[in-house]
Every structure is written in C-alpha cells, then in structure tokens.
Design goal:
51% of the residues lie in helices and 15% in strands. By secondary structure, it is an alpha+beta fold. This is Butirosin biosynthesis protein H N-terminal domain-containing protein.
C-alpha cells in the first residue's frame, strides 16, 4: 500500500530545518501530484554554518523533470505574489519565524543561528478579500489565512518579499516511473560522491578544533549538529520509503534495501551518541578519533545504499 507523506488538511513538516522541502511537498500535493517523486532526488549533504545537514539550497532545486514546475528564486511586492497566485502559480516565501503569529516559540532555536523560515502561499483567500492568502506552514503545522500586512512584517527583506515562484507547465507530460527512478537514483549518487567529501572534511576539522573551544561553544555546536543529523536521518528514511514504494522491487530487493537503510540510520545514530558525549566534556583524543570513525562508517553506509538504488533504478522491469 502506498504511504501518503503529506495530507493538506493536516500539514506536517518532513523534518527539522527542512521547511522549504516541506513546502514543496505541500505544493505538489495541493496540485494533485505525488511528492514521492520529489523525495527520490532529495539526498544531499553539506556543512553550513557549522552544521552537517541534508538541506538543499532552494536555488538548486529542479522540479521540471518530475512535475513540469518552473521553480526559481526572485523578489517582489505582495501585488506580484497575488498576480502569481491568480495565474495558478504558488509561492514559497522566506520569513522570520519569530514574526509569524502561529509559529511555536519552542521551535525558534535556529533563527538566532541565522536560518530563515519558509511558508507556502497556494491561493488567494476568499475570506477577507484583497490582500489575504491561503497559506500552509508544514513545520508549524498551520494551514489558514495570512494578510499581506502580516506577510510583509515577517519578510526577511524590508519592503519586499523574497520568494520562490512555482509555475506549472500546462503542456507537461510526466515521465515513466522507471525513467524517474533511473534519473534520480543516478543523480543523487553522483551528487553525493561530488559533495560529501567537502562536507565531511569541514565537519572533521571542527571535531578536531573542538578540543580548544570554550565549553559553551562546543556544547552548542554539538547540540545543533545532533538536531541536524536527526533531521537528516529522518529524511534519509523518507527517501528510501519513496524508492521502496515506487521501485517495484522484489521481496528480496526490498529486504536488502531495508537492511542498507537501517545501516544508514544506525550509522548516524552512532555519530549522534558520540556528539552527545563531546558536548558534555572536553573531548580527549580517543573520543574525537572514535567520532571520526563512526562518521566514516555513516558515509560508507550511505554510499552503499545509494549505489544499490542506482543499480536497481538502472535495470529494466
């Protein structure tokens, strides 16, 4: 049975720090699409602002092949966004979460670290006329209305909105399921081989340097990375779930994929256990070396799963 990742009547974020990806899933679902095809290609890793995470820069997200959606970052006024919605498009708007009336204060921890938030505007509201929008914030679990004034107040740029346009191509014809599996599985493997080295190198450098940090800095760094890696572990599970459901695998292939996906999950859990220890005390050499070994184990587990997906996705069924 297929698993529904997102239900518009009960918005739910994919994982911590994944507000843009969560908005994309919401937009695809609102338009009647299957968000699992987006998740097939959502396996990234980078080291940003001292955190190892799976978040994808929205400037590099491509939705044309899977959905016929032109997706690009721009800026403009509330009137520009209203015109986009009137033409059948949607907008993912960058916001300051602390300025959203519905955003839980308990979830504001990463705003102080410089992270912006994203919300989805999917149509104009009929409730209060001009200047009111129907919005979804999957991370906050909110679906409702928002005025243009509220939107402007929450904007990351004064007197201007920064947002991603989502525009659907009416002539689009989606590829076969097998074509999607083949393309996305090869793409995420090649991307991981290219990008992971730099991310791991930067993370390892900070692990080594942490021996000389003040206790507060080391504890904060460890705690933020633990949250980021927990979110990444959840996203990895959703990606594998999408492959498992769309891949038409045999019982043996599914079981082998489950095993490899579990190795990935276990690998990152082991890293997090040592990060917790590092955050509590000044790390001795053996703790740092142990963390680096676990990190290498997680990297190899990820590569093994990605290679397995590419091999399965490239075969005809």
């Amino acid at each position: 049975m297929d698993t529904v990742v997102y239900r518009p009547e009960s918005p739910a974020g994919l994982a911590a720090l994944e507000c843009t990806a969560s908005c994309i899933v919401a937009a695809i679902t609102h338009s009647g699409g299957d968000p699992r095809y987006f998740l097939l290609g959502y396996w990234h890793i980078g080291y940003y602002d001292g955190m190892l995470m799976s978040v994808r820069n929205m400037k590099w997200i491509d939705l044309c092949f899977e959905y016929g959606i032109r997706f690009y970052l721009t800026s403009g006024s509330a009137e520009d966004v209203s015109s986009l919605l009137d033409e059948g498009g949607m907008a993912i708007v960058l916001c300051r979460a602390s300025r959203l009336r519905f955003f839980p204060k308990s979830m504001l921890g990463f705003e102080s670290a410089g992270f912006y938030h994203s919300i989805l505007l999917h149509r104009r509201s009929d409730g209060e006329g001009v200047g009111c929008y129907e919005i979804v914030d999957p991370v906050a679990g909110y679906a409702g209305e928002m005025t243009a004034e509220e939107l402007s107040h929450a904007s990351v740029r004064r007197n201007e909105l920064v947002y991603c346009k989502l525009v659907w191509d009416a002539a689009y014809s989606r590829p076969t399921r097998q074509a999607s599996l083949r393309k996305e599985s090869v793409a995420i493997l090649n991307s991981y081989r290219k990008e992971s080295g730099r991310a791991f190198k930067l993370f390892c450098a900070d692990v080594a340097a942490s021996a000389d940090w003040e206790e507060k800095r080391r504890r904060t760094w460890a705690e933020q990375n633990m949250i980021a890696l927990s979110a990444m572990t959840r996203m990895r599970g959703l990606v594998w779930q999408s492959y498992r459901e769309l891949g038409s695998y045999s019982e043996w292939e599914s079981a082998e994929g489950d095993r490899r996906a579990e190795d990935v999950k276990r690998g990152w859990m082991n890293v997090n256990l040592l990060l917790a220890k590092l955050g509590k005390r000044r790390p001795a050499g053996d703790l740092r070396e142990g963390l680096l070994r676990k990190l290498e184990g997680a990297r190899l587990a990820e590569l093994e799963l990605l290679e397995y997906l590419a091999a399965r996705g490239g075969s005809e069924r």
